[in-house]
């Protein structure tokens, strides 16, 4: 039976460390760290994610604010609010919540964020730093997965890894981080032929396809490490019940075969939020030119 890579537990530890670090350095830093989340439209899932992020900020001492634009907002209106946040000294981090509803141009909005405040790591400058292996703000989900793997004692050096999905948000940065940790990485996508064959070769599987239950027991080799990034809302089956989340992996089928597996919920999701907090504190520290200390919990670059 696989060991569970427990994202809730690790995220709670990171939160405790960040809370202590913020409290310790508040006297010399004048202001607490500040995160602004720009939300556009009324996508209900985005609403839940934005609320979760704001609550997590509150737990560690980051001041958060949500700038909520209607779905009818113009490109110029959203750009102006990003420019204002760029110039606001009490704002250390800016996150533009995805997905951005059409016809708005997501690329232009992400490009408008000051790279020093780009806590989602999606600005081309930060993506370039990632590719070059230079320090910088990293995409939260892949960075969270690296932390989870390190905490689970997974030796990535020389490991055969398969990343399913090639989005800029998850798949691409994930593949780069794994490569930098000396894994041998294959990236699969919607046009990959015989995905099952590639899966069976992998010693580490990171599944970020956005397809519920894509990977089942017959696709995995015994002893594989499985990281499930997928997040799909399952509505309540009966009245009075609560809905739940499921991933891209058939958890019950894969758990008996794998050596390690992330649950959904409680795996990658909490680590994504923890990395957002970590990036915000990192940006706060860097923007104050080293006024605050360097004693944050060591996490992957
Ligand atoms: P995306 O839609 O941008 O990208 C999906 C990728 O998967 C694409 O590159 C596509 O080519 C590939 N793909 C699609 N179907 C495939 C198939 N049948 N076989 C192989 N490849 C296939 O999605 P994303 O933003 O990368 O997110 C992926 C999933 O991860 C979604 O379910 C999303 O909700 C979830 N997610 C979770 C977190 C978290 O914190 N847990 C964070 C971000 C995204």
Automatic annotation (TrEMBL):
Pathway: One-carbon metabolism; tetrahydrofolate interconversion. NADP(+) binds at residues 165-167. InterPro entries: Aminoacid_DH-like_N_sf, NAD(P)-bd_dom_sf, THF_DH/CycHdrlase, THF_DH/CycHdrlase_cat_dom, THF_DH/CycHdrlase_CS, THF_DH/CycHdrlase_NAD-bd_dom. Residues 139-285 form the Tetrahydrofolate dehydrogenase/cyclohydrolase NAD(P)-binding domain. It comes from the Bacteria. GO terms for biological process: L-histidine biosynthetic process; methionine biosynthetic process; purine nucleotide biosynthetic process; tetrahydrofolate interconversion. Belongs to the tetrahydrofolate dehydrogenase/cyclohydrolase family. Homodimer. This is Bifunctional protein FolD. It comes from Candidatus Synechococcus spongiarum SP3. The gene is folD.
């Amino acid at each position: 039976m696989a060991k569970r890579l427990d994202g809730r537990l690790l995220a709670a530890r990171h939160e405790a460390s960040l809370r202590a670090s913020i409290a310790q350095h508040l006297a010399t830093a004048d202001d607490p760290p500040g995160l602004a989340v720009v939300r556009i439209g009324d996508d209900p899932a985005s609403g839940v994610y934005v609320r979760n992020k704001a609550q997590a900020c509150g737990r560690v001492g980051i001041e958060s604010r949500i700038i909520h634009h209607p779905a009818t907002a113009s490109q110029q209106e959203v750009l102006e609010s990003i420019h204002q946040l760029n110039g606001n000294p009490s704002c250390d981090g800016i996150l533009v919540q995805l997905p951005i509803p059409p016809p708005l141009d997501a690329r232009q909005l992400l490009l408008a964020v000051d790279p020093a405040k780009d806590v989602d790591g999606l600005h081309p400058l930060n993506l370039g730093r990632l590719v070059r292996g230079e320090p910088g703000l990293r995409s939260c989900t892949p960075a969270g997965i690296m932390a989870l793997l390190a905490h689970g004692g997974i030796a990535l050096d020389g490991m055969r890894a398969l990343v399913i999905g090639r989005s800029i948000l998850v798949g691409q940065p994930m593949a780069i981080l794994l490569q930098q940790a000396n894994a041998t990485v294959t990236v699969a996508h919607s046009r990959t032929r015989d995905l099952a064959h590639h899966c069976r070769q992998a010693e580490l599987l990171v599944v970020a396809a956005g397809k519920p239950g894509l990977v089942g027991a017959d696709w995995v080799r015994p002893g594989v490490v499985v990281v499930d990034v997928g997040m799909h809302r399952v509505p309540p089956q009966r009245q009075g019940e609560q809905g739940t989340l499921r991933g891209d992996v058939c958890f019950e089928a894969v758990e008996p075969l794998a050596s390690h597996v992330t649950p959904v919920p409680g795996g990658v999701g909490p680590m994504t939020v923890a990395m957002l907090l970590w990036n915000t504190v990192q940006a706060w520290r860097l923007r104050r030119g080293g006024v605050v200390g360097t004693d944050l919990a060591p996490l992957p670059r």
